[in-house]
Amino acid sequence: MKYKQQMRKAAGLILLLTMIVLPFLSPVQQYLSIPTEWTTFQEQGISSVPAIKEIDEAEGSSLHALQSSDGITSSDEFFYNVAGFPLKKINVDYLDDFKVIPGGQSIGVKLHTKGVLVVGHHQVKTDSEQVSPGEKAGIQVGDILLKINGEELEEMADMAPIVKTAGEDDKDLKLTVKRGEEVFDTNLTPTYDVKDQKYRIGLYIRDSAAGIGTMTFYDPASKKYGALGHVISDMDTQKPIEIHDGTIVRSNVTSIQKGSEGVPGEKRAEFSAERNRIGEITKNSPFGIFGKLDDSITNGVNDQPLPIALSHEVKEGPAKILTVVKGEEVQEFDVEVVSTVPQKQPATKGMVVKITDPELLKETGGIVQGMSGSPIIQNGKLIGAVTHVFVNDPTSGYGVHIEWMLQEAGIDIYKDQAS
């Protein structure tokens, strides 16, 4: 009886050790690393699956892939056999091959807001008090003034004569206001400012914004482009700018303020919104700015169309970025993809990227403002764009997968699969 108990304990111990050790065995790790579903482009084929490539390259591997259909179709099934026994199946969906031209150019950005953006309250001095008519009317910072007396507002200059007339006639202004997704009307009474001797509404407003960034890509067929990799927000309200229209122009980098721990650096550049226009802006989203180019543009480093990598195809390891540190010259620099997250749904922070190039670190200290949108290239594929810098470590920051920027640009790489 005692002998049987000892045997049970020994068998249990052996089973426990087997369960602990089993996941660490190379064949088991290979098996677990093989996905059951995979999407890739026809040109890349089944070899794009990292696990399959590793297994094919491993000496003496007893794991083999057998294709269930002849040639490349819109989908395939692959079976993995060990000693003639099928152990796992992977379904592979093929997308039509698609290539874009990488950017890297420094661009100037000029946005015109949809309506007029309220960025602050202003106190109007009367004979007896100081008051903000706009604040009294319930208008908040971040609100967008869409209409005044039923007329659409397109720029700040539209307001001045209407405010003057209403004040002199002692009439209220009817404002149509957008706050988030809500649109409502409110009445505002212009107040005479005894100091400036003008009628005022007590609001600081803005109808445009400007800045610099980096071109990420453009589609040579449609001329659709994507840049920046993140939304443009108003500097005062920190809210995304709803655009009416906008333009991108060529930009000349004049100097760089290096980044340091706790202090992000920035590119300093000059551009003219009236000259050197290269395209229009039709969309400002969490994934960047998008629109159409007037004509093809070049970077002088890599002007050939490149295939793209889907989010699950991006690997940790060496990569390159294209960006400008002086004038308009696009240069290629070494970086490392520290981590990447395969994403089934669009998300802005898909990668962590670290600058490793000594020359770029010397010039900028790492990632700086204005570098946002710099394309990331890995193994000959465009995989995404630099978007944000870590404040406490300027050598590193986030990147967005190119898959989501293409989607925001209105380029549907999944069209055949969806149909």
Automatic annotation (TrEMBL):
Residues 182-419 form the Peptidase S55 domain. Keywords: Hydrolase, Protease, Serine protease. SMART domains: PDZ. The keyword Magnesium does not apply. NCBIfam families: spore_IV_B (TIGR02860). This is SpoIVB peptidase.
